[in-house]
């Protein structure tokens, strides 16, 4: 069994791989995910999910203590990944009925039932160490440091900076230091 362990600031969490193929491939090596379609999907606007009519891609987070990513959209499909980290950010890339095709910061993923996902925005620190600053300015005072792999809530994003919260500490980090937000994405 292959396991990928994220380096975390205060707690360790595992991403277990119970199978032997990549998360995106069927056992015969072909692509396993259906297109972002279903009955009536011809009316689906470009860049939006045909089920929810929400933008694609978009970011969500793992809702509970364990979430299984399957090879296809349905419980009869093999489980490829088991995410054991509440709040881990995921990118939704497709929709099919009650299922969402997701990928993590490393590009692995699969199909998850929508009930396993939260709309809460989080980000994972991708730099070895990221300085949290008092304001969105490279010259601002450093209020804390976050190790690579720390998952934080996204509070606000400007074109190049995001305000995050982890373990009760808030600060601004460059977008390039985290995964879970699109370049140029802005929200309050």
Description:
By secondary structure, the chain is mainly beta. It has 2 domains: 106 residues, no CATH class; 57 residues, SH3 type barrels. The protein has no helices and 16 strands. The strands form 4 sheets. A 5-stranded antiparallel beta sheet has the order 8-7-6-3-9, with no helix packed on it. The radius of gyration is 17 Å and the shape is globular. The protein starts with a strand and ends in a 9-residue tail after the last strand. Keywords: Signal. InterPro entries: DUF1058, SH3-like_bac-type. This is SH3-like domain-containing protein. It comes from Gemmobacter megaterium.
Bin the strand percentage. 35-45%
Fraction of helical residues: under 10%
DSSP E strands, number: 16
Please state the average pLDDT score: 83
- Intertermini distance: 42 Å
Strand order of the largest sheet: 8-7-6-3-9
Low-confidence stretches: 1-35
How would you sum up the global shape?
globular
Secondary-structure blueprint:
Layout: E1 2-6, E2 13-17, E3 58-62, E4 67-70, E5 79-83, E6 89-96, E7 99-103, E8 109-113, E9 117-118, E10 122-125, E11 129-133, E12 142-147, E13 151-157, E14 161-166, E15 169-174, E16 178-179
Antiparallel strand pairs: 1-2, 2-5, 3-6, 3-9, 4-5, 6-7, 7-8, 10-13, 10-16, 11-12, 13-14, 14-15
């Amino acid at each position: 069994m292959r396991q990928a362990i994220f380096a975390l600031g205060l707690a360790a969490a595992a991403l277990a791989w119970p199978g032997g193929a990549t998360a995106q491939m069927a056992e015969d090596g072909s692509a396993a995910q259906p297109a972002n379609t279903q009955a009536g999907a011809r009316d689906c606007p470009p860049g939006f999910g045909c089920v929810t009519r929400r933008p694609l891609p978009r970011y969500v987070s793992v809702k509970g203590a364990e979430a299984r990513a399957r090879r296809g959209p349905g419980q009869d499909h093999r489980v490829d990944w088991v995410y054991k980290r509440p709040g881990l950010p995921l990118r939704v890339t497709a929709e099919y009925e009650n299922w969402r095709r997701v990928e993590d910061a490393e590009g692995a993923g699969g199909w998850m039932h929508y009930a396993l996902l939260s709309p809460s925005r989080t980000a994972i620190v991708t730099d070895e160490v990221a300085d949290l600053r008092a304001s969105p300015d490279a010259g601002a005072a450093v209020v804390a440091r976050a190790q690579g792999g720390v998952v934080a809530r996204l509070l606000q994003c400007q074109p190049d900076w995001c305000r995050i919260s982890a373990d009760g500490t808030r600060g601004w980090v460059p977008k390039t230091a985290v995964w879970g937000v699109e370049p140029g994405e802005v929200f309050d």
